[in-house]
Design brief:
Bound molecules: adenosine-5'-triphosphate, adenosine-5'-diphosphate, iron/sulfur cluster, magnesium ion
Strand content of chain B: 25-35%
Helix content of chain A: 25-40%
Strand content of chain A: 15-25%
Strand order of the largest sheet of chain B: 6-7-8-3-9-10-12-11
Largest sheet of chain B: 8 strands, mixed
Distance between the termini of chain A: 36 Å
CATH architecture of the largest domain in chain B: 3-Layer(aba) Sandwich
Helix content of chain B: 25-40%
CATH class of the largest domain in chain B: Alpha Beta
Structural class of chain B: alpha/beta
Largest sheet of chain A: 8 strands, mixed
Number of strands of chain B: 12
Radius of gyration of chain B: 22 Å
Number of helices of chain A: 11
Largest interface: A-B, 46 and 45 residues
Oligomer: heterodimer
Order of helices and strands of chain A: HEEEHEEEHHHHHEHEHEEHHEE
Strand order of the largest sheet of chain A: 6-7-8-3-9-10-12-11
Distance between the termini of chain B: 24 Å
Shape of chain B: globular
Number of strands of chain A: 12
C-alpha cells in the first residue's frame, strides 16, 4: 500500500490530488450532498482556480483540504486527498489539524484567520514558530519584519503593535498573507482573497500574491466566484455547479471557448465586452438550491440547450482534447 | 442632450461625531464631513454613475437625495423647483419624485410582512386606493419586475437575493417615481443574477421613462450601464464626465489609478505598482498622499477644471485656462 502510494508520487507531478471526493452535510431533519465525486489536482508551481456561484461547494472543498471542516455536521462520504502522495483526508475519528503540514489557507475575511485578541506581532511569532521552529529568537524577529516588508507594509513596527481590527481590510489581508508565508506552505489555498476589498487594494493583493508566488510559494489553489479574477491568476480552472465539477481545462481555453453551457453563461453574465446597455445573454433561474435539485443535470432548468436526457440522467465528466473535461450530454 | 431634471450644487453633508472628552469638560461635538461640495446634474432618461471606494460617501449621497439626511449646505433643483431641505414640502417633493433601492436587500425588507405588503407600501398614501385597485397595482409592479405572482404571499426570508432586489424595485416603481437612486443594487448578487437585474433595469428605464443614479464600486458595471459618471473619493467628486471618455482618457490621477486597477478578462497581472496607498489628506488635494503626480501646488485645494467632456479637480490641469479664464484644449 505505502509502496504503491510512493510510486504514484514519483509518477505524478501533482502536489495535490483530490479524487472522487463526496461530502454531505447532515442535520437532524435533512442531508445535503455538498460535494459529489469531485476530483481536482494541483501540479507543482501551478495556480489552479475553482470557480462557481454561491452554494456550488467551493468553500467546503477548500475546508476539507485544509482540514478545518467541521465533522460533523459534515460527513466524508468517499474519496481521497493526497498531498505529495500522502493521504491527508481526515476521517471522522481522527480530525487532524494540518497547519504546518504544508498547506495553508487565506480566507475570504482575513479577520477569521487572524485572532482578534493577539497583537499582529504575537500572531506572526506563532506562525514563525511553525515555519522555522529551530531558529533563535533574534532570527525569528528578523523573519517577521522581513515578511511584513515583503507584503509592502511600510510602517512595519507600527503594524506589529496593533490588533487586527485596528487595520484596514487591505492591511489585514496583507498581514494574513505575511503570516502564511512565514509558515512556508507548499500549497496555498485562497478562498475569495479579494472579495469585498476596494478595487485598487484588490489589484494590489493579486499582484502581490503573484509576485510572491514566483519567489516563495510553489502552488496555489484559488477559490473565487469571479471569472475575471481567475483569468488574471490561474493556469488552469475547474468550474463547479451544485457540488460537481462541470468543466475543467487550461484557463485560456476555458475562457475563450467554454464547452459547458453553464461556463458560457458565467462568461456572458459579465458586462465586460458588451456595448453600453446591450442585453446581457443570461437565462432566467437562480443558482440551485442543493436541498431541491432537479433530476438529471442540475443545470437543466436554466440551460438553453437542455434535451430530454438532461432531465433524467446526470452526465459524467468526459475527457476532451487539450486536457479538458466537461460533464454535459452535448459531448456524449 | 436632454434637459437636466435634477441639479445638485455644492452639496455638503456632515455628521456629528461624538467624542468622549475628559469627564470635567463633558462630551464635545465634532463634525465629520462625509460629502464635500458635491455638484452634478442628472438628465432625463440618463443613467448617471457614481463610482467610489468604500467609505467615499456613496450611500450617504443616496440617502441625502431621498431626504433621509439633511445637508449642511446645498442648492438642489428638481424639475426646475428648488428643494428646501428644512421644510416638509421640500422633503415631500424629494420623496414623491426620487426612489431608492438599498445596497443590502436583506436589511431593507421587513421580514415579518409579506412581499405583497412590502410592495404596496410603495403606493403613496395620498392615492387613497380601494383594495382591488391596490391589488391590481401590486400585480402590475410584480409583472414589471418579473416577479412571479405566486411569490406575493411569501416572506422576504423565503426569497433569493435576486428576488429580494426585484421586490425592492417593485416597491419603488409602484409609487411612480421618476428618478431611482440605485445603491449597489447588484453587489451582493451572483454574477448571473446580477446580469438578470441589469437587463431588468435597462428594460424598466425604457418602459417607464425613468432616470437612474447608479452607485457602484464595479467599473465594468459602470461602463456597461452609465452614460456619464462621477468619481467620488473621500466625499469629493474628483472627476466627472462622459463614461467612455473617462475610461479611455482618465484625467485625474485617481481615475487613472482606478481604471488601471480594474480587473477584467483582458487585464494583465503586470501591475507592478504595489505600494501601499496613503490616507486621504485633510489639507490640499485629498488624493495627494496616494498620488504619483503630486507636486508643490498640491498642498493647496485644487480648482475644478472644465475640459469640455467633463470636469476634473486637479492642479495638473490648472494651466488649461488662458489669461482671460477661457478653456484651452490639452
Ligand atoms: N449616520 C452616520 N453617522 C456618522 N457617520 C456616518 C453615517 N453614515 C455614514 N457615515 C460615515 O460616512 C462615511 C461614508 O459612508 P457611506 O456609507 O456613505 O460610504 P459608501 O461610499 O457608501 O461606502 P460602501 O462602499 O462601503 O458602501 C463613512 O466614513 C461612514 O462611516
Ligand atoms: N455547516 C454547514 N451546515 C449545513 N450546510 C452547510 C454548512 N456549510 C455549508 N453548507 C451548505 O453547503 C453548500 C455549499 O457551501 P459552500 O461550500 O460554502 O459553497 P460556496 O463556497 O461555493 O458558496 C451550501 O448549500 C451551504 O448552505
Ligand atoms: S447536460 Fe443538458 S442541461 Fe446539462 S448543461 Fe449539458 S445540455 Fe445543458
Ligand atoms: S492635485 Fe496634485 S496630488 Fe492631487 S491628484 Fe492632482 S497632481 Fe495629484
Ligand atoms: Mg464561499
Ligand atoms: Mg454604501
Amino acid at each position: 500500500m505505502i509502496d504503491s502510494i510512493q510510486r504514484r508520487d514519483k509518477l505524478s507531478p501533482n502536489l495535490l490530488e483530490v479524487s472522487n471526493l463526496s461530502v454531505n452535510f447532515e442535520t437532524i431533519d435533512r442531508t445535503v450532498e455538498v460535494l459529489k465525486d469531485v476530483s481536482v489536482t494541483v501540479g507543482k508551481e501551478e495556480v489552479v482556480g475553482v470557480v462557481g456561484e454561491s452554494g456550488s461547494g467551493k468553500s467546503t472543498l477548500a475546508q476539507v483540504i485544509v482540514g478545518v471542516l467541521d465533522i460533523p455536521p459534515a460527513r466524508i462520504m468517499g474519496g481521497r486527498i493526497l498531498l505529495e502522495g500522502k493521504e491527508i483526508l481526515p476521517h471522522p475519528e481522527n480530525k487532524v489539524n494540518f497547519r504546518g503540514k504544508g498547506i495553508n489557507m487565506i480566507f475570504q475575511e482575513p479577520l477569521t484567520s487572524l485572532n482578534p485578541v493577539y497583537s499582529v506581532h504575537d500572531q506572526m511569532e506563532e506562525a514563525v514558530n511553525i515555519g522555522h521552529p529551530k531558529l533563535e529568537k533574534k532570527e525569528k524577529e528578523a523573519i517577521i519584519r522581513k515578511s511584513l516588508a515583503e507584503v509592502m507594509i511600510r510602517d512595519v513596527e507600527g503594524v506589529l503593535n496593533v490588533y487586527p481590527h485596528q487595520l484596514s481590510g487591505g492591511m489585514r489581508q496583507r498581514v494574513s498573507i505575511a503570516m502564511v508565508l512565514v509558515q512556508k506552505p507548499n500549497l496555498l489555498i485562497l478562498d475569495e482573497p479579494t472579495t469585498g476589498l476596494d478595487l485598487i487594494v484588490q489589484r494590489k493583493i493579486i499582484s502581490l500574491i503573484m509576485n510572491l508566488k514566483k519567489e516563495v510559494l510553489s502552488s496555489i489553489l484559488l477559490i473565487t466566484h469571479d471569472l475575471a479574477v481567475a483569468a488574471n491568476m490561474c493556469d488552469r480552472i475547474y468550474v463547479m455547479y451544485a457540488g460537481r465539477v462541470v468543466e475543467s481545462g487550461k484557463m485560456r481555453d476555458v475562457l475563450h471557448d467554454p464547452k459547458h453551457p453553464y461556463t458560457t453563461m458565467l462568461k456572458n453574465s459579465e458586462p465586460e465586452g458588451y456595448a453600453n446597455g446591450a442585453p446581457l445573454k443570461v437565462s432566467s433561474g437562480a443558482p440551485p438550491d442543493l436541498r431541491h435539485l432537479p433530476p438529471g443535470c442540475a443545470f437543466n432548468p436554466r440551460c438553453p440547450m437542455a434535451m430530454d436526457i438532461c432531465r433524467s440522467k446526470v452526465p459524467e465528466l468526459k475527457k476532451l482534447a487539450d486536457n479538458r473535461e466537461v460533464a454535459c450530454w452535448l459531448y456524449e | 442632450m436632454n434637459e437636466p431634471i435634477l441639479e445638485v450644487e455644492n452639496l455638503t453633508v456632515q455628521f456629528k461625531a461624538k467624542t468622549k472628552m475628559f469627564r470635567s469638560t463633558g462630551d464635545r461635538e465634532k463634525w465629520k464631513r462625509v460629502l464635500n461640495a458635491i455638484s452634478f446634474s442628472l438628465r432625463q432618461g440618463e443613467t448617471f454613475g457614481i463610482v467610489g471606494e468604500t467609505g467615499s460617501g456613496k450611500t450617504t449621497l443616496a440617502r441625502t437625495l431621498v431626504g433621509i439626511y439633511k445637508p449642511k449646505d446645498c442648492k438642489v433643483t428638481l424639475y426646475g423647483k428648488r428643494v428646501d431641505f428644512r421644510k416638509k414640502e421640500g422633503i415631500l417633493l424629494l420623496r414623491k419624485t426620487i426612489g431608492i433601492v438599498f445596497q443590502d436587500p436583506v436589511g431593507s425588507l421587513n421580514p415579518r410582512v409579506t412581499v405583497y405588503d412590502i410592495i404596496s407600501e410603495g403606493i403613496p398614501v395620498w392615492e387613497k386606493l380601494k383594495e382591488e385597485q391596490k391589488a391590481e397595482k401590486v400585480r402590475e409592479a410584480a409583472r414589471l419586475v418579473d416577479l412571479p405572482e405566486s411569490k406575493l404571499e411569501s416572506y422576504p426570508t423565503e426569497l433569493s437575493g435576486g428576488e429580494k432586489q426585484r421586490v425592492s424595485l417593485a416597491r419603488t416603481i409602484i409609487g411612480g417615481k421618476k428618478i431611482l437612486v440605485l445603491d449597489e443594487p447588484t453587489s451582493s448578487l451572483d454574477v448571473s443574477i446580477q446580469a438578470q437585474i441589469l437587463n431588468l433595469l435597462i428594460r424598466l428605464k425604457k418602459e417607464l421613462s425613468i432616470s437612474y443614479i447608479f452607485i457602484t464600486h464595479d467599473l465594468n458595471v459602470i461602463k456597461y450601464m452609465c452614460d456619464r459618471v462621477a468619481v467620488l473619493y473621500y466625499g469629493q467628486i474628483l472627476e466627472q464626465g462622459n463614461t467612455e471618455e473617462i475610461f479611455e482618457h482618465p484625467r485625474h490621477p485617481y481615475s487613472s489609478d482606478l481604471v488601471a486597477a480594474n480587473i477584467s478578462f483582458s487585464s494583465t497581472t503586470k501591475f507592478s505598482e504595489v505600494q501601499e496607498s496613503g490616507e486621504p489628506s485633510k489639507e490640499g488635494c485629498v488624493y495627494k498622499n496616494s498620488c504619483s503626480k503630486r507636486f508643490a501646488s498640491c498642498d493647496n485645494e485644487p480648482p475644478v477644471i472644465d475640459y469640455g467632456k467633463g470636469t476634473v479637480k486637479c492642479w495638473l490641469y490648472s494651466n488649461m485656462r488662458d489669461d482671460r479664464g477661457n478653456k484651452m484644449e490639452r
